[in-house]
Amino acid sequence: MTEPEIVIETTIASEPERVWQALRDPALIRRWHGWEYDGPGGLDDEIREIYIDGVEADAAASTLTLQGGDRFTVRPAVEGSIVRITRSAKGSHPEWDDWYEDITEGWTTFLQQLKFGLERHDLAERHTLYLDGPTSGATAMELLGVAGITGPPGSAYTALVATGDAISGTVWFRSPKQLGLTVDALGPGLLVLAIQPQNEQRPGGGAQMILSVYGRGAEEFATLADRWTHWWDTRESPGTCC
Fold first, then answer.
1. Known InterPro entries for this protein (predicted)?
2. Are residues 99 and 132 in the same domain?
3. pLDDT mean for each 10 residues of the chain (242 residues)
4. Which pTM does this prediction carry?
5. Which ranges in 36-138 belong to alpha helices (H)?
């Protein structure tokens, strides 16, 4: 038995033609989708598998239907464009049911990355850092030390996080399992913190962090990435939000 469809949408301050281009050009998709990783099955292969191979793209209607049935639609709005993702109902592809919530959360993240990349950087190049794994019950927000940031989107924050970095910016978005923060000193950058859902492969759930950095050279980014990765690999307890 299938369940109702899930709809995820946001308004992007960019014209529909530009948003559509960002969904169809692989070179632009890699500037907002997901995170960088190399080798077979890396980001470029992932982009082709999700957005290019076997998809149904209707440029006139601005709709993009992916292999699993998930559908993007782009519509004009006073503020720019409304981008909607309509998920195929759970049960329509039983082999993916155990990961259905993960994929839904992933689309929530990616749609916000698209919005941020277009609105703040016009899809400029970026560097990305991805950290995830099981935790002892603490959320990603608690681990990094930003659980005390409770304001609505657009509200300002400052925090001394568990990596030792002092960060500031605004709340970019908030959902039941995710928190997105802009980071002024990184371009501005975008930090997305997520609670990973429980499933058979991850019975205790987990935590996930994606940091997108703009306007920094490879060496400077590598230093930051090494510091955050070392913290993640050696963490013992949640940080403290200031």
1. START-like_dom_sf (IPR023393)
2. no
3. 80 98 98 90 93 96 94 97 92 73 94 98 98 90 97 98 97 97 98 89 87 97 97 71 41
4. 0.93
5. 43-47, 100-121
